[in-house]
Design brief:
The protein is an alpha/beta fold. Helices cover 36% and strands 21% of the residues. The protein folds into two domains: 1-49, no CATH class; 50-237, Rossmann fold (3-Layer(aba) Sandwich), CATH 3.40.50.150. The strands form two sheets. A seven-stranded mixed beta sheet has the order 6-5-4-7-8-10-9, sandwiched between helices. A three-stranded antiparallel beta sheet has the order 1-2-3. A hairpin with a 2-residue loop joins strand 1 (26-31) and strand 2. The protein starts with a helix and ends with a strand. Bound molecules: S-adenosylmethionine. S-adenosylmethionine binds next to helix 4, strand 5 and helix 7.
Length: 239
Amino acid sequence: MAGAARALADRLGLPLIPPQENGPPLRLLVTGPGLELRLVHMRPGQGVTVQWLHNPRLHQASAAGEGLIRAVGARRGQRPTVLDATAGLGRDAALLARRGCPVLMVERSPVLAAMLADALRRTAAEPEGAELARHLKLHCGEAVSVMAGLTDTDRPDVVCLDPMYPDTGKTAKSRKEMQLLQALLGPDPDPPGLLAAALDTARHRVVVKRPRKAPALPGPEPSHRIVGSSTRFDVYLVG
Ligand SMILES: C[S@@+](CC[C@H](N)C(=O)[O-])C[C@H]1O[C@@H](n2cnc3c(N)ncnc32)[C@H](O)[C@@H]1O
């Protein structure tokens, strides 16, 4: 574990901190079940991890999950290719991949990208995860430049966006997660620029995930909206 932590710290250009030592409040821990992002006062397991296979949200039909599936236009016999330009913890990406959509996850934070890469490797190594992992690819980088660099044949059917939004989570777990992500990332620099790039890239549609009552991103009006109890998907048809 110590060797893995040293290699990861070197790769990310982060200081290596022995477990009991004081230091920065936010830490990325190398643990048996995977990488965990944790504030120093949290107990082991209380931080944020990337977990797809044993995440009930991926296996139970939830209203928000079904809303996302409808928003990207996936249905029987139709599995659009998706570029998730704000991959985060990869839950939306994994949900789409589980329904058979090939998904490219793009994440600008090297720390989150390392957590996603670790989860992808672990998922692929489990017999029941191989199929899910086969549908997921990862790119660490700024999505606007990644999209600008795509060749015409590589353009996805759908681009999904879920920019950071001030905490609206009702549960302690979602508040804690948002607190950790905001401590790591701060606000997203330019969601309207990301929407403009997505509209230039997607072959068929752009889907923007928003809290139910949040305003739409500045730019063109969505073609339609799929509204759930706490989440809304703004759908922009293109092409
Ligand atoms: C709210 S989180 C997304 C959560 C994700 N939908 C999930 O299911 O876990 C937003 C993420 O988008 C990333 N992000 C924001 N703007 C980006 C950009 N221009 N390029 C790449 N990643 C970006 C942030 O670093 C953050 O991790």
